[in-house]
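Lab meeting, action items carried over

1. Structure of the two-component assembly. Owner: GW. Status: complete.
Input record:
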Amino acid sequence: MTTPSIPHLRRRGFLGMLGAGAGVMALGGTAACGDDDGGDGGDASEFDVWVLQDENVNPVSQQSLDRFNEGSDVKGALVPNPNDGYRDAVQIAIDTPQRPDVFFNWGGGSIRSYARAGLLEDLTPYLDEDPDFKNAFLQSVLDAGQIDGAYYGIPMRQMQPKLMFYNTAVLDDVGASIPTTWQEFLDACDRVAAAGITPVALAGAVSWTELMWFEYLTDRIGGAQVFQDIAAGAGQGWRHPAIAETVNTIRDLVDRGVFGTNYPSVQYEAGGAETLLEQGEAAMHLMGSWAYTNHLGADPDFATGQLAWGPFPPVEGGAGDPKAIAGNPTNYYSVTSESPAKEAAIEYLKQEMASDAYVQDLIGIGDTPAVADIEPFLAEAEHAEYLSNIYSMVVEAPTFQLSWDQAVERAQAEPMLEAMAEVFLGNMDAEGFIQANEDAAG
Amino acid sequence: MTSALPGATASSEAPDPAGSTGSPAPRPAAGPARRRRREGPVGSAVVPRPGFWYILPAALFFGFFALVPLVLVVVLSFTAWPGFGDPQFNGTENWERLIGDDRVLNATRVTLILTALGWLTQTPVAMAVGVWAAGPQRNRAILSSVFFLPLLLSAAAIALMFHRFLDPNFGLAADLGPLIGFPDGNIYGTPHGALASLVFVGMWQWVPFHMLLYQAAARNIPRSLYDAATIDGAGRWASFYRITLPQLRNTIVTSSVIIIVGSLIAFETVLLLTNGGPGRATQVLPLRMYMAAFREDQLGYGSAIAAVLVIVGTAFSLIIVKFSGFAKMRSTLEGM
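Predicted assembly:
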């Protein structure tokens, strides 16, 4: 038929060429990665403070930097990042010259690998040599941000303990009161269930809500040390009898219908567990302190009228302190160890993070900062009752357990959350749960 | 309709100044050496391959965006890398771990089930609607453009919409659940309900596209075949089984490859609709890969899972193409 006038390409040869090209590029890529370790770019006359974009918090942070910059040769600059992808941005930049000098983080698992790789400045010496600075913060919150016994973060925002929320209208209707012991809690559940209402709202479609029950039950039954041993060890801590008892207690709660029947489909976002509580379709809810803000936004009448809150009830005969709490202690600022302006950056944290001006600004946007002795400021705030309660809950807490999924290694958190979901679904017993976590750790 | 290769007729005839029958003069001298052409099997005409430069843009694009990342993934699968710093080579550690990982095994099982269910539900529906929509009637034209609409929505929007529908207290699931065997609306809180939701949403999302393939193919079937069948006394069903179905053979293969490979790598719908839950009942392999790489900070291990996905996806499409006879490139219109 025809003869091609241009020499045609042979398939095998072409693929070979492409493959070779790709190989060369791959080598080039890894070689380029290796070059970063040398001299650091960066500028010692300025430090960047990476934060999340937030129209409430950003002005507060900017004002604190303005106050610092007035008296300092080295100036701090606020760099707001979009919430989506912030973790990725930090992850990509943390070991390059583009790294931030100071950055916002959640403590625990969000910075553990950086701290262990030596990328973060150990702040322990700075805190030790300046007791005023160290004691300016609530010690339980400061301690909750420790990694391997050293401080890598300075508290910079609100504290978010987890606590029980109650719809008092529903409890009143069935003749129950806010439970102060585990037995009272079970009795209240039975009364509410008998009235055809779900006793406890649970957004079981996401496992971090189920995690809260594990955290508090383990603490109340076995004490704070049980999980601290788990987090510090290599899996053997899961064998503590309090873990098995927690699993059995949860299975018992599920079987009693405490969470209703369709909780595995319930979402946390709009139209989820909080709406159930607002609409009186559930009587109780275990959630982080941020739920109050959500209730205020979604149903202000409910939030100011029928909403009550309190600590997780103590379990009779349990070893735990009834005042111990769990949750997200706070957000932290960490300083990168390679930063050329780190001395100034740390000076900024010392000057501003516990200053009256910064604390009052934070309270003004509805935060409860992790700073000691700020009750007078809180008493003047809007929603003073709630903020003061949360604050005293943390102040009086002997321990503030960082959320388990943040406290364990990242590779163990997902299997742990999956196993918790299986327990709530009734697919896994105590032995299976312990085994699954040991496997993930080992 | 005499060419053996309808798709290639234009290119094989147009640029042929010294056509095989047109100018006989130089042929004896030039001989086979100049032609560089192999004698293929009887019936398969030799088609000129286009020159190198024609495919350069596509080749560069494919090289940069497919091949280079692919090679990098394979390289990464032999490293330990938390996402910062330098990847450390750790030999075959990731691959050895992969073989014994029961979460990966579970994810593979779920993926295969979802793929099978996806193909079994999407193919018949898409074919039925597509063949129906191929008819010339005006109402069919209107309805088929309505059916087409889901394809215009982004996968994330669809997943989030169904996510909301499936709320057991305030969503459609509360009203529809009791009618389909979920009295308390607890659909995606149960393993089989969650699986069924994913299959349904996949169908809702992808049937329009495959319907379009079948509609186009069905419109290409020559009228004369049906006329001949009618003369031979075939009814509607006989015409469908003996003419439409065989004529759609290549489309079925194309559509099946797209469905199966698409189901193997389905990710965003699963992430947004069930997030692998309840427990890990709908944790598919791409989601497992994502979790390993980005939630557990094990990019090396995630890359190993990604490499397995590439191998499995390629193997599936090659197997389908091989055993369906698609690679023979024979037209269904041969002999017409």
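2. GW to write a short summary for the group page. Key points so far: Confidence is low (pLDDT under 50) at residues 1-40 of chain B. Chain B is about 65% helix and 0% strand.
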